[in-house]
Amino acid sequence: MSRISRRIFLIFSLLGAGLAQAQLSIEITGAGANRIPVTIAEFAGDASLSRDITEIVRADLERSGLFRMVPPNAGTMDENAPVDYAAWKARGSDALAAGSVLRAADGRIEARFRLYDTQKGEPLGGAVYVTGKAQMRMAGHRIADFIYEKLTGERGVFSTRIAYVVKSRGQYLLQVADADGQGAATALTSAEPIISPVWSPDGSRLAYVSFEKKKPMIYVHSLASGQRRIVANFKGSNSAPAWSPDGRKLAVVLSKDGNSQLYSVNADGSGLQRLSQSSGIDTEPRFSADGSSIYFTSDRGGSPQIYRVDANGGSAQRVTFEGSYNVSPRPSPDGRTLAFISRREGRFQLAVMDLASRQVQVLTDSTKDESPSFAPNGRTILIATETGGRGVLSAVSADGRIKQRLTIAAGDVREPAWGPFLK
Amino acid sequence: MKKLLSISLLLALIAGCSTTPAPDENAGAPVESRSASQQPDVTPVVADGLDASGLPRVLTDPKSQLSQRSIYFDLDKYEVKSEYQALVAAHAKFLVANRDFKVLLQGNTDERGSREYNLSLGQKRSDAVKRALVLLGAREDQVESVSLGEEKPRNPGHDETAFAENRRADILYRAPDGRGEF
Fold first, then answer.
1. Which value does ipTM take for this structure?
2. Most A CBs within 10 Å, among B78, B109, B119, to test the A interface
């Protein structure tokens, strides 16, 4: 495997200077074994907008580790320009994208493009994306998603969003950014810790645990309106929310009846039901993608291990057996894999289990991995980890080959949550 | 258990004093020998006022045992060690004598491992202290046990010393008028 290590600093403007600390920078190490060679031509039209969008498309595709950029010709190329397939084939490019970006009279931006298969000598389709100036990055991500899907057969996640918590200067910021870490916006600022954010399946709300009232309580936060609702404020601790796939319920962990136990509650806080009955700790519930079962962490067998239970309750089956500390289960979107954190010789590392064969593979060589989160296409797992004493996010491909690190200049980043596909 | 009870009985006497108008904080105050003097000895007494947080000084004065609010735990453990049973007994006695006071028990862990699992582990620790308080006479509705997990380390370091200091349950008080520490 050819190993590349590059450093890309994407400088972008934020809402205000006060948010300068919130800029994420990305470092990529490793790459897929067989990267598809593609050319993204310089798009025609408004020179500055075209350059920005073209760069976003290229950066997205490269960052995935699945593509290799073949340089374009000098000058611009729009979506209707004639394509000399043989010449591109000779250059070693399997696919070519060309397009144009125009500013409409109402100030909106229209990005058009077409993708060509140079091997077969035929167009693969194209699209036009119209966005406001503020969402210009999204047009680039959408184009990259289109190309990614046509060339790999899987949906791309460049237009999805991530949420995470930044601890900086004694404050906790719950932020939402594009999947590449850019365009960060702060949804909540608090003097007290915020943990365990999870996206509602429609991507409009976050559930999380906030300590702002001196103890952990569960909130549901609508991102567009900023409206927040406490959905669990029972005696004791309220934590570890997980959405059901239909978005109507949350699995939560409450200590109101003694130990931390699993309950389910409607998204408005009504209809509380107990799901687990054990004398130990039961926590970190996550629904399987089909909603039929819940994976969770329990110390009922003497050490923290991962178990699976029917979503309606019943008896639980143990899932992990290797080692004395396996926590934070996250079933993959296709239901075939379970990502989790495993302690090995005192080091906490990201591991995946093939649920059919029960084979476990450790994907990282770090020491403080936490809080894994699958990309909605299952290709990448975002984790919190630590380098040089600082909290950073790391995106690890599900085969462990490609790693990207997202760091913040003046703070710790932790508790990542990858959002759903854009509808 | 018998030993614990006798200790708690002893502490009960001390703690009991503390809740009467004459505070215990001067009970052990140094008294000069004045054998030559014909005047009677004077033991200075300060009326037990409230400190800035609105709590009786017996809870906050560093000389008072009840100002000790932390119970430390071993790695991955949540049993209250015997060395803290006297302290727990003293707090239980205060709660028995002051039924309109409430406490919030905050369990904490070191930074290693899952945040959510640590939240549950911290809960186990505060629950263990709660059980001990209730066993010694505190009422259920006087005591709430919660967890801060690994989120609020007292010692921000990353070594064994810091970890030991952060594996802890803290006792916070609230007076009947709602003033206090939580």
1. 0.89
2. B119
